Amino acid sequence: MKIYENIQLNKESNFQHLYIQVYKALKDLMLTGELKKGDKLPPIRKLADLLDVNNVTVVSAYRILEEEGLVYKKIGSGTYVTLNLHDKENYESLPKGIIEEDYIPNSLIEQSHIHIEENMINFASATPSTDLFPVDDFKQVLNEVLDRDKGSAFGYQESQGYYPLRIALKKYIHQYGIHTETSNIHIISGAQQGIDIIAKGILNYGDHVLIENPSYTGAMAVFQSRGAKIIDVALEEDGLNLQDLEKKIVAYQPKLLYIMPNFQNPTGISYSFKKKKEIIKIANKYNVFIVEDDYLSDLNFFANDNATLKSLDTNDIVIYIKSFSKIFMPGLRLGFLVVPRPLFEEVLLAKHATDISTSGLLQRALELYLLKGTWQQHIKYMESQYRQRFEIMIRCIKKYMPQEVKYVLPKGGVNFWFKLPKGLSAKELYEIVTKENIVFAPGNLFFLNNDGLAYFRLSIAAVNEKEIEYGIRKLSELLHNFISQENKVSIPSSQYTPIL
Ligand SMILES: Cc1ncc(COP(=O)(O)O)c(C=O)c1O
């Protein structure tokens, strides 16, 4: 039983069911060779006692291992390991894993099923409402660019991006502690494209990528589309679990670690400064490139520190992605990367192969917008608008949310993450609240294995203050009823049901 004594479970985890943690711990023991072909797994009750969990938790973990063909049962004897998983050949030849590979992150399909009508209170979308867009100011810079550059505004732009814009962005990220050369900045058509061209340029079929659990569905979809094997790492209130991270790096030798250190999507959590530094240290130790998706660090309301990882990166190991979608206008499809030197060529070639270049007209307009200082005014305006919503949201959550619903309040950003009491499903709740014209994002969208049925995300990007006040009060009422015994709907025992 010695090897099982080292298994560490996070019983407080808001992010991963215990049976999945047990399953993963056992699989890790197989990957590291501590559990070999023919070894007998402990009797259910014994392991449950040792780990201080329910028998059902161990039964569920064994069942997944069995469904993956990693163990088999001998009637009346016990459960045995089928093969030496640490042999690379065996690992490669395994059928797709239920938890790691079988899930198709079909979030786009799922999200398009979130039917949002005009009169609905939209806590589902993390996209800013269009009334916040600086349309008139942008119209002015567009006209100025057209008068100034005439036809050249419509020519092909360099794949790396319009040079004056890269100069302006170099200055802009100085304030985020990122000191880099213009030659390391690549303009992209939105952060989503950034993730895509990084994956296209760097990953080979079958490479491993580590992500947070839960994570941004758009990134999971990209990595999956490149044939990468996605492995999730436990996420805690102050960032990744470092033991789990290091263990998975050793076991899988990933090419990339994809994370959102500030106001993570979907949980809203921010990494502590200490963890940010530790993660960079670990990445350097094992030579793993970190992809830092900075989709939102600008919206810091109460965090003491929202340093970007890139600002702490002395070894050029962080690929920094900046999106403007949440703070500017998502439809512009503009963002940028800071790319480590060794990856310059791969990323640039991938960008060229994808769309040759981001719209030259829009790049020129953004450059002028930055140059004129209109950008700073706009960010201040967005910050104040979001801050009002953020503060009202926090007040309403504290006032109305049933105490059985668990959450960790974020210190900035737009996302709030909740956990329902045991046995309740956010999908069922979703059905109930949509009838009352409220929508949110069910948590399972953000999990690799379609786990996380107990979670849901509320975003304040697309709702005004009145809607927040009414929406949270109403949602809380519905939640009270939902939680009360007579309305209780239990999650079926097979909690990783296939995605719809
Ligand atoms: C974490 C994260 N990264 C990237 C994106 C995509 O951003 P963009 O609109 O810049 O492509 C989103 C969009 O919601 C996001 O949440």
Automatic annotation (TrEMBL):
Residues 16-84 form the HTH gntR-type domain. InterPro entries: Aminotransferase_I/II_large, HTH_trans_reg/aminotransferase, PyrdxlP-dep_Trfase, PyrdxlP-dep_Trfase_major, PyrdxlP-dep_Trfase_small, Tscrpt_reg_HTH_GntR, WH-like_DNA-bd_sf, WH_DNA-bd_sf. The keyword Secreted does not apply. Keywords: DNA-binding, Pyridoxal phosphate, Transcription, Transcription regulation. PROSITE patterns: HTH_GNTR. GO terms for molecular function: catalytic activity; DNA binding; DNA-binding transcription factor activity; pyridoxal phosphate binding. In the C-terminal section; belongs to the class-I pyridoxal-phosphate-dependent aminotransferase family. PANTHER family: HTH-TYPE TRANSCRIPTIONAL REGULATORY PROTEIN GABR. This is Transcriptional regulator, GntR family. It comes from Anaerovirgula multivorans.
